[in-house]
Amino acid sequence: MTTIKTSNLGFPRIGANREWKKSLEAFWRKDKDVNDFLQEMDTRLKINIGKQKELDLIPVSDFTFYDHVLDTAVMFNWIPKRFRHITDPLSLYFAMARGTDDAVSCEMTKWFNTNYHYIVPEYDEETEYKLTENKPLAAYRKVKEEFGIDSKPVVLGIYSFVTLAKGYNDEEKGQIYNKLLPLYIQLLKELEAEGVTWVQIDEPALVAADNADVQAVKSLYEQIKSELTSVKILLQTYFDSVDEYKELITYPVDGIGLDFVHDKGKNFDSLKTHGFPVDKVLAAGILDGRSIWKADLEERLDFIQSLAGELDIAEFWIQPSSSLLHLPVEKHPDEHLDEELLNGLSFATDKLSELNLLKKGLISGKTSIQEEIKQSQNDLNILRQYAETGNREEGTQKELFHRELPFEERLTLQQNSLKLPLLPTTTIGSFPQTTEVRKARLKWRKKEWSDQEYESFIKAEIKRWIDIQEEIGLDVLVHGEFERTDMVEFFGEKLSGFAFTKYAWVQSYGSRCVRPPIIYGDVAFTEEMTVKETVYAQSLTSKKVKGMLTGPVTILNWSFPRYDLPKKEIAFQIARALKKEVEALEKAGITIIQVDEPALREGLPLKESDWNEYLTWAAEAFRLSTSSVEPTTQIHTHMCYSHFEDIVDTINDLDADVITIEHSRSHGELVNYLKNEPYEKGLGLGVYDIHSPRVPSVQEMIDIIDDALTVCPTDRFWINPDCGLKTRQQKETVASLKNMVDAAKQARKTASVQV
Ligand code: GLN
Ligand code: ZN
């Protein structure tokens, strides 16, 4: 008889009402002293454990004060030089995360293919390896004391930790492993001495590892294992299938965790082909840890049974496919969604209830959960009907994926009709979202202000900034995006098929939480979204005003997608809706239209072998939304991303007339790249960093422009900041843009000689 257990990989830290965030921020503001703060964090930990109490295996030390990768770095004493003088551990920890007056914070980047961001560990040759604290042990003890539970500490594995870190080259890797290994062993031995039964070692990076790496890492685990006696290791992978499955199952560990949801069926295929070791536990990720949707319990039960049918093992765990970090904690009692939608949702705590039901079904038979099965299917059926908004815009055979004329011909036509100066200046779209702007929106949302009052406020703000832009002397103006809270929410609210929650927060990074829109139904155009503001702005000036939209891929990547359509289909639906907006803008006389795709690169699949498929449809979606315009209409796009290299083909493939891209912080990397791989279309390399209030000098921007012009054709080069200016203040924005325009004027003098 196989023993069936339920397990979890990690739980959201933030609390159902973002209590965790609030404690942290109060502590940072010094509104809370350290003792109160630590006590509140303990409470948060205990509440999280309490919510998982029903499970057989409960993860600990996934909980953190900021980020679990930062925890691991600090635990192994990977402290960048610039912070080493800080003696107080908590101050040091937060300094690395958030920076200090004299030291910039550590870099932050996306956690695999999710929208969670982790702190990148920094290595240098002087890093002194030691175990500063056994954090999993401390967490284990706390939970043991409070609940008497033998919980399952979670540790970020050696391979994934090193893979996620920076500051070393390939030759140094071996040495880093060798030095880290004793620390891992010490940490695990201490857990063993404490009586811990299972440790979950997270190795998500193994899913995409090649055979050589998987072999090399195996020897690390052999060394680890040889030092341990009683504590058991579960090697946990997630977010995709394991390419080197055959090798992985030979690891000297006691259990292996596999994702059977985001694996495109490959893990199951591998298991069928190569079997699964009889002496190991299989921890099977069978509920989507990243999907907000309820599971069809019968379908899942059948799946688990077919999986179990392939196994001959003593113990079998069922669990979510990944940590539940990426989901809201639970449905809020005051959530204002329609019942039909609400009942189809499953957040972190609901996932755990689903797990428990599945266990019951496995042990006592399907009939024992017959009621619940019916309920889940019923809820999903109702959701399906609810999602039928009647707004489906089917694709047609004749859909346009290409502009009528090739770029070079469009360029000439556009230059003749737009009549812009050489090296035109522009901005990326948003101007400062001041407290007044936010207050105004709040008043309007609370119905303290009528539509009319709000509209006239927005108009006044647009007018004010059109005047400012004219005064500064910019060439292509924008309306400023004052009516938008957020570049996805604004469009989602006007398109069909989207829902917005009040309380469904998820952690983006540190204390920052977001409420991603939910795409539940067919996305379609219902009304003009940006025409009114853009046309108004255009009516105030003889300069060109650029229309401003968020692109289909970004809208998709920053939302929770529906579960019953492939992402490509959803992206195409959004693209068709945006196409109508693009056409409406064009019809209203707007001849420059920017479609932002800052999140395009974020959607890249984990494995490079899957990139092409994604990038192909991503570019198609963009072109579907932008290709129907006249050749004289200039399409811009924008990305806040400077590593051009890996997606340059896609950037080209978008066939935008102009792309503006972040550049100022990349230390000339991009220019170096362009030296060998020239980019032929319109290009605006950001000439100043918008992340800081600092006003850049004219000369430093001239230097950047001159440098760029050594590799970019002058007749299609644009001058603009790195990104939108919504987080800035008016004062520094105006000063910086004035300097930028001066820099452009000077650059033109030399450039015009060359043309
Ligand atoms: N148009 C947007 C803005 O200026 C672009 C923001 C972004 O790239 N994230 O705010
Ligand atoms: Zn940007």
UniProtKB/TrEMBL annotation:
Keywords: Amino-acid biosynthesis, Metal-binding, Methionine biosynthesis, Methyltransferase, Repeat, Transferase, Zinc. NCBIfam families: met_syn_B12ind, PRK05222.1. Pathway: Amino-acid biosynthesis; L-methionine biosynthesis via de novo pathway; L-methionine from L-homocysteine (MetE route): step 1/1. Belongs to the vitamin-B12 independent methionine synthase family. Pfam families: Meth_synt_1, Meth_synt_2. SUPFAM superfamilies: UROD/MetE-like. Catalyzes the transfer of a methyl group from 5-methyltetrahydrofolate to homocysteine resulting in methionine formation. Zn(2+) 2 binds at E662. This is 5-methyltetrahydropteroyltriglutamate--homocysteine methyltransferase. GO terms for biological process: methionine biosynthetic process; methylation. Residues 6-309 form the Cobalamin-independent methionine synthase MetE N-terminal domain. It comes from the Bacteria. The active site is at H691 (proton donor).
